[in-house]
Amino acid sequence: MDDLKVALKQQIIDSLNLQGMKPEDIDDNAPLFGEGLGLDSIDSLELMVLLERTYGIKIEDAREGRKVLTSVQTMADYIQANKQNA
Amino acid sequence: MRQELFIQSAVAISPQLSFDRNNFLKPAVYQQNGKLFAVDIEYRNYISPVAIRRMSRIMQMTISTAMEALKVAGISSPDAIITGTGRGGVTDMEHFVKDMIRLDEGPMNPTQFIQSTYNSPNGWIAMQSTSTGYNQTYVHRGSSFELALLDAQMMMAETGEPLHILAGCFDELTEEYYFIRGKRDYWKKPAIPTNELYQHGDTPGTIAGEGTAFFVLSNRPGNAVAKIVDLRILYNAKEQNLHALIKNTLDEAGLAPEAISLVLIGDNGDSRQRAYYQDLTTLFPEDVLGRFKHLSGEFDTAMGFAVWLAEHIIRTGIVPEECQNNRKTESDIRHILILNHYILGTASILLMSRS
Amino acid sequence: MSAAPDKIVVTARGIISSLGIGHEAHIAAIRAEESGLRYPEILSTRHAREFVLGEVRMDNPGLMAHLGIPPNAPGYTRTTLLSMCAMQDLLKEVPLEVLRNGNLALINANTVGGMSVVENMYLSFLEEHTPEELCQWLDTLDCAESTEHIARFFGLKPAMATISTACSSSANSMIVGARMLRHGLADFVIAGGGDALSRFTLNGFNSLKNLDRDPCKPFDEHRNGLNLGEGAGYVLLERESSALERGARILAVLSGFSNHNDAYHPTAPSPDGSGALRTMKGALEHAGLAASEIDYINAHGTATLNNDLAEGKAIQDLWEGRPPAFSSTKAFTGHTLAAAGVVEAILSIGAMHSGWILPNLNNSSPMQELSIRATIQGSSGNLKNVMSNSFGFGGNNVSLIFSKL
């Protein structure tokens, strides 16, 4: 799980081009949207592309997506859960 | 259209050192391979880190030029934002199309799609300058920027109120774009050093360029050093009598040809199009003609660079020798005529005067 | 006493969409509540059985045959063909000679130029040697190619402009055209636009998760997004004095218009509807009309979560909870992107003439955030002034008002 989270943080940084950030800078439970990293709705779509291309997980609608994308922890949990079901 | 547009500020990012005009042509920038890419600036000075991370180079270039033009003019929020582009966000379009093909229409990045829309930069500029006024984007090849200026003229004529309009243009060059257009014989083959452009005027093709130019225009003199007086867009250029139109433009402005200090022509060194500028010496002495496309390269909105250059020349009072102008004597720069064309058939006449 | 300004009037129109060709076919389909949405049969896409689209029922060879173009004539993109069909339809209401002899401007619009064709061969453009038969498409991608092609095809030599402001593009064409008439830069203006379905656009909107798989539900509580469509439309605009002088039938007056930027977000409208409200108010002021004088609003109504909330709120606020009948016709045609403004203007003018308020399909549950509701049933009405909204990406918001003379 820890390896997954570190990899995920790097992938988020790359996918959203968060220049100058490193995985250590992102707390597992920090909110990604709104206050935390200040990401917006287009970023949430980009993260869904990341999930689909890298982990083969497709989120069908934007509303469900927002819940999954709350933090790195929720994303990692979702990846784990859906990988097991695959 | 005859309508004065006072130029409160003029900013350009180009293959030359134009952004900081103190460095312009110190030295002139030439390239060996027929491609003039714009000189990048520190875009982070104009765009927040949150916004910039998604932006393509042309988007950063366009927004930075626009925001600097507003800053120089001392305007925070323009009444209108009107732009022209021939090709829009080429890099984003290329990425999206190729990804779509490669992934067989699988999961796609929304950012590239959004940024490939032609009016996407206008939206960003409006957000950054909180401008809720009129907003328009023209995408019509070599008349794209001219149409933006024409729209600005119409707007000025529609109101008696003081107006500040941000008008500009942007176009980018990519290796892929250069390669594809090479198949349509746009470029010299083989590619030539850009400073030798006019020496190869007997062969087809030209050199490629890119850039952005933005102007804050108003209907009051303000701090303007120069003003656009008249603009004619020639839609079916081959069939029109350029000389007659030039004479008409000057007559309507009450100017004799001798009053024109400089005629900047958009000669792009392409033998198939040079005839457009022939016999201008029947109207103007040879040492009044100048050229600019060896500095900017040829692209749909190169006229933006020409207008920037003309304003710079009126401002400094000096015609740089790099403008291929064989000036024998220095004279007062009061009126500049710009005659431009683009390889795909449009042309324009623009008269600029000291304000 | 000064004379009233010479009104800008509509004297001809041409339209093509998934509902067919011609304004009569369109109004008839709407009165019969027959939507043009279906799974695509012409656009070849991996998503063909996933999303209903407003696809024109003719393939490219069919469009060429309709226009009398030889089947192997080079370089006609679907965007250009649709636009030419709409022009040909317009020419039923004005003699070509009037356009050839007059001081004419053609203000066209599209969002992705010839992409519907170019996307299928883009990789071959990148190869060292592109097959000869594909070279005809090399310069068809940009937006202006259609415009110039249309002018050439009909033997016209107009002043030309192409506008590309996403979903509000052809609405903007009409604004720019009207202003050119006012300034005497033209005496006749053909204004409008066209867009063909493409995989580029379909996958682009899918990446925004803005698409409904099923027919869209504008202003419905359970709406899921938009359906893409394709089509083209043009109107002939001229000054009233010119129309009267040549004895032309005046279809409508373009009595007001407004273009204001939302300045909020690259793709989403300001959620409180303030952007949309500003634009609609601007059009009313320009027309010199009170809100109460509008008899019908053809809403932008894409059925996305964001648009319908913002636009719904704006309508509710501007009309203080008692708006005129309003509906979105996008469940009939799909969202025709650059063509939407002019297609929906022509539908609105058709509604005025037939005295028929166009219904909003697929609306069973009103939106909980609003106290107002779209018109779900077609009905008779005396429509003297109609408003048509088009709100595009980049916050480009346009409202037009058409009136009976």
Descriptive tags:
heterotrimer, A: 86 residues, mainly alpha, Non-ribosomal Peptide Synthetase Peptidyl Carrier Protein, Chain A, 4 helices, C: 405 residues, alpha/beta, 11-stranded mixed sheet, 14 helices, 13 strands
Structural topology:
The complex is a heterotrimer of chains A (86), B (355) and C (405).
Chain A: H1 2-15, H2 41-55, H3 62-68, H4 72-85
Chain B: E1 2-13, H1 49-52, H2 57-73, E2 80-84, H3 90-102, H4 110-116, H5 120-128, E3 134-138, H6 144-157, E4 164-171, H7 175-182, E5 211-218, E6 226-234, H8 242-252, E7 262-265, E8 289-291, H9 293-296, H10 302-316, E9 335-341, E10 347-354
Parallel strand pairs in B: 2-3, 2-4, 7-8, 7-9
Antiparallel strand pairs in B: 1-5, 1-6, 4-5, 6-10, 9-10
Helix pairs in contact in B: 2-5, 3-4
Chain C: E1 8-17, E2 20-21, H1 23-31, H2 60-67, H3 78-90, H4 96-101, E3 104-109, H5 115-118, H6 122-125, H7 144-153, E4 159-163, H8 169-182, E5 188-195, H9 199-207, E6 231-239, H10 240-245, E7 252-261, H11 274-287, E8 296-298, H12 305-318, E9 325-327, H13 330-333, H14 340-354, E10 356-357, E11 379-380, E12 385-392, E13 396-403
Parallel strand pairs in C: 3-4, 3-5, 8-9, 8-12
Antiparallel strand pairs in C: 1-2, 1-6, 1-7, 5-6, 7-13, 10-11, 12-13
Helix pairs in contact in C: 1-14, 2-3, 3-7, 8-14, 11-12
Describe the structure.
The complex is a heterotrimer of chains A (86), B (355) and C (405). Chain A is mainly α. Helices cover 58% and strands 0% of the residues of chain A. Chain A has one domain (2-15, 30-85): Non-ribosomal Peptide Synthetase Peptidyl Carrier Protein, Chain A (Orthogonal Bundle), CATH 1.10.1200. Chain A has four helices and no strands. In chain A, 23% of the residues are buried. Chain B is α/β, with parallel strands linked by helices and 355 residues long. Chain B folds into two domains: 2-224, Peroxisomal Thiolase, Chain A, domain 1, CATH 3.40.47; 227-354, Peroxisomal Thiolase, Chain A, domain 1. Chain B has ten helices and ten strands. In chain B, strands 3-2-4-5-1-6-10-9-7-8 form a ten-stranded mixed sheet, with helices on both faces. The longest helix of chain B has 17 residues, at 57-73. Chain B is globular and about 60 Å long. The two termini of chain B are 18 Å apart. In chain C, the strands form two sheets. In chain C, strands 1, 2, 3, 4, 5, 6, 7, 8, 9, 12 and 13 form an eleven-stranded mixed sheet that branches. In chain C, strands 10-11 form a two-stranded antiparallel ribbon. The longest helix of chain C has 15 residues, at 340-354. Classes of the chains: A mainly alpha (86), B alpha/beta (355), C alpha/beta (405). At the B-C interface, helix 3, helix 4, helix 5, strand 3 and helix 6 of B face helix 6, helix 7, strand 4, helix 8 and helix 9 of C.
